[in-house]
Amino acid sequence: MDMAFQTVGIKREEVYIANVVKCRPPANRNPEEDEAYECLNYLRNQVLLVKPKIIVLLRKYST
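Request: output the structure for the sequence above.
Response:
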């Protein structure tokens, strides 16, 4: 990700990366719906605090 940001002229300090799941499920499997739901309020609070200009969703579970 850092290389991709650098390629388009974005400094890493200008980017905040969050994840729907705050800890990976066992064996690094994809999160179950209820596991993602458990972290939803925390993620919402992160967005409220950071106040991003743009939110980019990457991969299946963020959408």
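The chain has a mean pLDDT of 88.
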